[in-house]
Amino acid sequence: MKFELREHLAKLPLPSTTTWPEGVWDVGVFEHGSMSMIVFAPQGTDYQTSHTQDEIYVVMQGSGVLELAGEPVRCQQGDVLFVPAGVKHRFIEMDDLVTWAIFYGPDGGETP
Q1: What is the Cα–Cα distance from 15 to 92, expressed in whole angstroms?
Q2: What is the pLDDT along the chain (112 residues), one digit of tens a residue?
Q3: First to last CA, the chain
Q4: How far is CA 105 from CA 7, 21, 42, 99, 108, in A?
């Protein structure tokens, strides 16, 4: 299967919600079994904290800083970031940041 970034970016932003008052900056792209993939292009404040599954970000455009368990991790186009299930994280700096975010595995994450 092929997924075109441009096609899914054109759907953003989605309307604001209680959790995302500045608008929703992610859109679902694909699901298969325990795996799901979204385009995530945060703007303003990133309100996410942690997820029940392991997560991989593939930075497709721009740059940013991912706050991962309280530690800053700089990233730019071409980088891949791993976030274990249950670990608090959010982007605290974003410069035209666009990512594929892929969630997978059982709740609680994969066994090391």
Answers
A1: 21
A2: 999 999 999 999 898 988 888 888 999 999 999 999 999 999 989 999 999 999 999 999 999 999 999 999 999 999 999 999 999 999 999 999 999 999 999 999 998 7
A3: 29
A4: 27, 29, 24, 20, 8
2 Cβ contact list (under 8 Å, min separation 6)? none
Contact (CB, 8 A) for 46 and 22: no
Per the CB < 8 A criterion, the answer to whether 93 and 82 are in contact is no
Cis amide leading into 15 (omega within 30): no
0.85 surpassed by pTM: yes
With 0-12 / 13-18 / 19 or more C-beta atoms within 10 angstroms meaning exposed / middle / buried, residue 46 is: buried
Residue type, 33: G
Return the DSSP state at 7: H
The topology under which CATH files domain 5-14+28-104 is: Jelly Rolls (2.60.120)
Say which DSSP state 20 is in. -
